[in-house]
From TrEMBL:
Organism, scientific name: Natronolimnohabitans innermongolicus JCM 12255
Name by which UniProt lists this protein: Histidinol-phosphate aminotransferase
Lineage of the organism: Archaea, Methanobacteriati, Methanobacteriota, Stenosarchaea group, Halobacteria
Annotated EC: 2.6.1.9
UniProt catalytic activity: L-histidinol phosphate + 2-oxoglutarate = 3-(imidazol-4-yl)-2-oxopropyl phosphate + L-glutamate
Family to which the UniProt record says this protein belongs: Belongs to the class-II pyridoxal-phosphate-dependent aminotransferase family. Histidinol-phosphate aminotransferase subfamily.
Modified residues (N6-(pyridoxal phosphate)lysine): K228
Keywords: Amino-acid biosynthesis, Aminotransferase, Histidine biosynthesis, Pyridoxal phosphate, Transferase
Cofactor requirement: pyridoxal 5'-phosphate
Signal peptide stretch: none
Amino acid sequence: MQPRDLSDHVAYEAGRGIEEVARELECDPSELVKLASNENPHGPSPAATVALREAASSVSSYPKAAHADLTAAVADRWGVDDAQVWLANGGDGAIDYLHRAMLEPDDTVLVPTPGFAYYGMSARFHHGDVAEYALERAADFEQTAETVLESYDGERIVWVTSPHNPTGSTMPLAEIERLAAETADETLVVVDEAYGEFADRESAVALIEGRDGFDARDDVAVLRTFSKAYGLAGVRLGYAVVPDAWADAYTRVNTPFAASELACRAGLAAVDDDEHVERTVETALESRASMREEIDAHVWDSEGNFVLVAVGDASAVAEEMQERGVIVRDCSSFGLPGCVRITCGTDEETERAVETLNAVLDDLEIDPDSAGSEVSDA
């Protein structure tokens, strides 16, 4: 007996963890700095930590009340009805729910390249096909409606990542509105705003609700997560905000109680911890600016909690930086073999990353100007 044919499926490559690398290098984990997975350098919301401790004794019960309470809190934060908030086991779970709700077998989704591999993985899990639109390195990965429409061919779902991972570029709301208007009535545009707190832009929820001068649309959905700005990556909590017209589909596609009691209680505490989010965003802004100014290679503008750096040979640079105690993301798996992605860390972590990268570039004799101007065909 064998599973179904999975030959078209590509495994997701996560950033390497500190414990894993420490075992490989035979060193103490405290000697390493991990800036590979876009995690929060300040850890979880302190309020969420307290809530997790207090909720530990209640994990024998299903999280029905906590799920309802968190849904209401998130809905209130965005000014939408409770039914429009689809809680999930991380942002990945929300991707799955949207695919379950929208895709018939052999429907196609349109995804950005480079981009987050799980869009395509999830579509294939749900027996869909995948097409791609390119964000061009020569254009600094600019995101416009035209960029997407040039590749659009009636796909059921179009994925937009804003801020985009791994480049940090964003798509303005007016461009997202144009994209939704110029795609078919049965095409859903999903805007993944996992890094939205770090961007100086309004959320695409405005397009769903008809705010800020936009008409309300029933063909736009928004993805958000508690993993980044709230520091809750380990509890796996995300959600989608969907149009009211089809919000009730959630009860037919969600996994029962996928957002756990611990996740919901942590989310309830974190969603009101504005101080922690503001501190996290401020750190990211300072770190982004520092890396752009001080790294001796081309660093793209970013509105996420990370920067993309042209280094010529990502594998060699990432491996050497790891040997020197700084873990960054080799972007070869994104189709960018000449780039690494560095998460925004604390002042100390950012300083160490900059110094290490510059030393590695010098020791490997990489020409920063050449690395910055190189355009990948991937």
